[in-house]
Write the structure tokens for this entry.
Amino acid sequence: MRIVSGIQPTGPIHVGNYLGAIKQWISLQDKNECVFFVADLHALTTPYEAKDLQKSVTEKVIAYLAAGLDPDKVIIFTQSKVKEHTELAWLLSTICPIGELERMTQYKDKSKKYKENINAGLLTYPVLMAADILLYKAQAVPTGKDQEQHVELTRTLARKFNQKFGQIFPEPKSMMPEYGAKIMSLSDPKKKMSKSDESKSYISLFDEPEVITKKIMSAETDSGKEVVYNVTKKPGISNLLTIYSLLTDKPIPEIQKDFTGKGYGDFKKALTKVIIDYLEPFRRKQKELQSREVYIKEILEKGQERARIIAETTMLEVRSKMGLT
Ligand code: AQP
């Protein structure tokens, strides 16, 4: 299968991004043709510092590699370097009903979060995402739960295009992990963990042990003291149990049993150790890669060339079908 996915260079990649998306990417890379990009154009829709953007892109590539992506197996590149993404986005916008965009949860959430900057890009974000996916004729898109609605719109646009202009695009399916598709914020477990939120609300893949300790020990928990999974009554502890379970491959009922008669404090201490140990190789690899700028640049250049070949071929077909050639 051809697989496409990406992450925005908006903030540090966190365990939610890892458990929802990157962990799936890694297990898919051996048997599929994978295209994983850094979505810099998407990141422009929310407030950002232009002078920091390139650094943030490089950090994302380092995170991809440190987490286990193999650049010899997958195509890694920066979205803006393959111009066909924006061209196809424009063409798809001409067949996308505005109503479909206005009902998107991410648009509603981000319009509330960035009241001073409700730009058109925030609304048309899912059309660019559809272009990112359809350009490579992807069959599947591994993401967390929050992006499911956008993949659904991608299928709608593929269908509309195929009906109107002739069959080109497969309708891609969403690929979500059974557990971990929506890791919640540490400071507000009713909200999704997000890299653009305050730092204490997430664990970055590269947080140092003392930072992880501080964040987990002060993570919001619930009333009572029993370590029991119950999303409605105990959203905080349930979220921490989910993270524990996914990082140890231990089923939640077993973890609950281990902590019978113990309180939140003991559980948080154990979880802190689990996270520190799990992320230790990531931190080590990140340190190694930080001094290898040329290597990172080469990976991106090679990836962008490979991506461009696929993108150009698709666009020849799209332009022809739409009457542009
Ligand atoms: N909390 C989460 N749990 C599981 N998966 C998640 N993803 C994001 N948050 C969680 C998945 O990670 C990928 C990153 O997507 P993105 O960078 O394009 O933006 P996003 O989905 O909006 O992620 P963030 O972390 O919330 O970033 P900001 O704060 O910039 O908006 C996607 O596959 C996503 O589903």
User: Anything to note?
Assistant: The beta strands are 2-7, 33-38, 75-78, 140-142, 173-175. Residues 2 and 27 are 14 Å apart (CA to CA). Residues 206-287 form a domain with the Tyrosyl-Transfer RNA Synthetase fold (CATH 1.10.240.10). The two ends are 30 Å apart (CA to CA).
